[in-house]
Write a structure and sequence with these properties.
Length: 753
């Protein structure tokens, strides 16, 4: 590697040969550092020739900024990150009525709105001189004018509130210079030039939001955002020249021609100058243009008019307006251009303004605020703009109501919220989903989707369902959903009471109304999604659902189904047909390697494995498929003693490792490791098989333990995190001293004895 002095010599040599500012800046930026990065754009021109001179530029920036401040912001607390990526993608750009509405519904499940917070107080009044709307308008104005937005935050220099901003200011973008320490630290600080003075600001206390700038010349100039005016400078120059020409024409209207004596009359030079002065004084300018001229002699007027070049320049003025509008993504109809403009066209133009210009701008501000500002006030907070409040992005009210009335996948409260009527939290059924045919709540409808239900041949007693119950259910169109729901629950309650009397209180065979309600809803879902399984004698989804209940009660009483199986997960845990214990057992049959799964397969009578794709990678399970695994477990699994007396330190190790892993977006461990950590944290009992798995894992994985969760570069050490997820202590000098290792060994030795 060349020495610093050699690089310095090479840089000086290059500078001496080229003798350009560009090569000097490039040399300083790449070799020396600690320099001021030159902004190759002429920011002052954007103000002098653009915003401060050209009415189109002024109108465009004002239109965007003043429209943007009408969009309210919200501060949320994240409660569920599951769909966060989908939400961010949905709200990114190009929003329409559907995506805005979907985003509004998603927020209900992802966030919880925070009404009072330190962050909210700050944004409400960023500084003593500005409200949020004025602050935002200024930020957007600088951004659209120069391509750069600089926000300066003031926070205490020390104490517990260090880094928590209590005032925010927009810095004048055209007066900011970037200081660099070379390519490895492109931004070291910012300098504001004001009244021949320089004010240095650290990089940490300034938020710089820059528009894309492809000027990668090697001198660091790409660190400044590119202004739209930069790309449209030629158009702007043309527009300004057209304005100048128009003004000259206005001030010289009466002079565009020639005055000559009629006949043989002649005038002296003195008379000619006097006449010219009189014309300028009395007939030139906007106030006197087109006035009637009266002279004391006979003269003839020859009108010259505008030159062809002047006419072309004036005609091109309207074209420049369209070009400038295109630069900013603003429809030209919004600049009081009434040509071919109707109400519908104007409404559509307003929608385009938000989708093309305002929403991308606000999203950029939102993302940068969530990166630079929000984490100081809480890692679980999220700053967002509520685009559902934009009238132009909401469908027509009647159209929306008609659409929502058919949207059975939405709750009544979600429909009310969509049309702006607020929610009814006092009526529980308003938060439930409704079957279109009868408006019966079916919260768990999805549980029955795709299920191949085969009901057994029912006894005569069970086949004859009480007529009044059937009538109550199928006469849904004449009754309200609340009444139907109440009547159905009453009927199910009678079923529960009758059944529990028959089994004489046997806890493994008793049931309750909520369980039957789930069976009922699954029956409705199966009827609608799998009509092929329905017997021809069944006339309605309600009758099919009641038949499913009868079948479930028969299996509950007799310990078997006549034919087929369904709703086994709803049977009590001690029931011989219950799948609850079986599902727990199946969840324990997940292995990180195919070898482990194969060893387990041989233990339970299988000779092959299968795999599953998960978000954490591929996992392996014994047997050819889930059906074969379930059958094998039915034959081999016996009730095992569970061990839950592992030390508290084991839980603490698993909790710490899980928290660190989640902090770095779960880069370490498999699905199995994460599941084991969850069981340990919750204090769940471990079977002997799981104890043996844990002992084996700790034994083979200890060699990867370094004693630290995070390395010197701030990256997670997966070997240590994975070891701790299984309850291990990464600080022990050898695995034999590990508490979890010793506990597992004691259990295994005891079982072998």
């Amino acid at each position: 590697m060349a020495s610093f002095l050699q690089r310095l010599r090479n840089g000086i040599k290059a500078f001496n040969t080229q003798q350009t500012n560009e090569s000097y800046n490039r040399f300083i930026y790449n070799v020396m550092g600690n320099n001021t990065i030159s902004n190759n754009q002429y920011s002052d021109d954007y103000i002098d020739k653009g915003y401060g001179y050209n009415p189109t530029i002024y109108s465009l920036i004002q239109l965007i900024a003043k429209s943007a401040i009408t969009v309210p912001y919200k501060i949320y607390k994240k409660v569920d990150d599951t769909n966060m990526k989908e939400y961010k993608s949905l709200t990114a750009n190009g929003l329409n009525e559907d995506s805005v509405f979907k985003a509004k519904l998603m927020r209900k499940h992802i966030f919880e709105e925070v009404e009072h917070s330190a962050l909210g107080k700050l944004l409400e009044r960023p500084n003593p001189a500005q409200s949020w709307s004025v602050f935002l308008e200024e930020m957007i104005g600088f951004g659209k004018l120069t391509g750069n937005r600089y926000v300066y935050g003031i926070s205490p220099e020390n104490g517990e509130n260090k880094g928590i901003y209590y005032q925010l200011y927009n810095l004048p973008a055209h007066l900011i210079e970037i200081k660099s320490e070379g390519i490895f630290k492109p931004v070291s600080k910012y300098t504001m030039m004001y009244q021949d003075s320089k004010y240095d600001l650290t990089a940490e206390e300034v938020l710089h939001i820059a528009d894309f700038n492809p000027d990668y010349t090697g001198d660091g100039s790409h660190l400044y955002g590119q202004s739209p005016i930069q790309a449209g400078m030629r158009v702007l120059t043309t527009a300004n020249e057209a304005v100048e020409t128009n003004l000259k024409f206005l001030h010289n209207q009466s002079a565009r021609g020639m005055l000559t004596p009629e006949g043989d009359e002649q005038i002296t030079p003195t008379q000619a100058q006097q006449l010219k002065d009189a014309l300028r004084r009395n007939y030139q300018g906007a106030k006197s243009a087109n006035d009637i001229m009266i002279t004391g002699q006979s003269f003839k007027w020859t009108n010259f008019g505008l030159s062809s070049s002047d006419l072309q320049l004036l005609e091109s003025y309207n074209a420049t307006i369209k070009d400038l509008c295109n630069l900013y993504g603003v429809p030209v109809q919004l600049l009081n251009n009434t040509e071919s403009t109707t109400y519908d066209n104007y409404r559509i133009a307003r929608k385009v303004l938000f989708t093309n210009a305002i929403i991308p701008e606000l999203n950029k501000i939102k993302d940068e605020f969530n990166r630079w500002l929000v984490p100081h006030y809480g890692e679980d907070l999220y700053f967002d703009f509520d685009f559902s409040a934009i009238p132009e992005l909401m469908p027509e009210q009647q159209q929306l109501v008609d659409s929502l009335s058919k949207s059975y996948w939405l709750t009544s409260n979600e429909k009310r919220e969509a049309v702006g009527y607020g929610v009814d939290e006092n009526t529980p059924v308003m938060n439930d989903y409704l079957v279109p045919s009868g408006m019966i709540p079916i919260t768990d409808l999805d549980l029955g989707i795709g299920e191949d239900v085969t009901f057994p041949t029912q006894t005569q007693e069970e086949e004859v369902v009480e007529e009044e119950v059937i009538e109550d259910v199928i006469e849904q169109e004449e009754e309200t959903k609340q009444e139907i729901n109440a009547r159905l629950r009453t009927a199910l309650g009678n079923k529960v009471e009758e059944h529990n009397e028959k089994v004489e209180g046997d806890k493994d065979k008793t049931t309750d109304i909520e369980t039957l309600y789930q069976v009922y809803r699954r029956g409705v879902g199966a009827y609608r999604t799998n009509p092929e399984s329905v017997r021809p004698t069944v006339n309605s989804e309600e009758q099919w659902a009641m038949g499913r209940i009868n079948s479930f009660l028969y299996a509950l009483r007799n310990g078997r189904f006549r034919s087929g199986r369904h709703d086994q997960d709803l049977l009590p845990e001690g029931h011989p047909m219950s799948s609850k214990e079986k599902m727990k057992a199946i969840n324990d049959e997940i292995y990180a390697t195919e070898e482990e799964a194969l060893d387990r397969a041989k233990e339970i009578g299988c000779d092959i494995t299968h795999s599953h794709e998960t978000e954490d990678g591929v996992v392996y399970m014994p047997c050819a498929d889930m059906v074969e695994l379930e059958d094998a477990l039915d034959k081999s699994i016996t009730k095992q003693e569970l061990y839950d007396d592992y030390p508290q330190s084991v839980r603490d190790n698993a909790k710490k490792a899980k928290d660190i892993n989640e902090e770095f977006n779960n880069p370490c461990a498999t699905l199995v490791g994460k599941g084991r950590a969850t069981d340990l944290i919750d204090g769940k009992g471990l079977s002997l098989d799981i104890v043996k798995k844990t002992f084996a894992y700790l034994s083979r994985s200890y060699e990867y333990v370094t004693g630290e969760y995070i390395d010197e570069k701030g990256k997670p050490i997966c070997g240590d995190i994975s070891f701790a997820l299984w309850g291990g202590d990464i600080k022990v000098s050898n695995v034999e001293d590990d508490v979890m290792y010793k506990w597992c060994k004691r259990i295994i030795d005891k079982s072998e004895e």
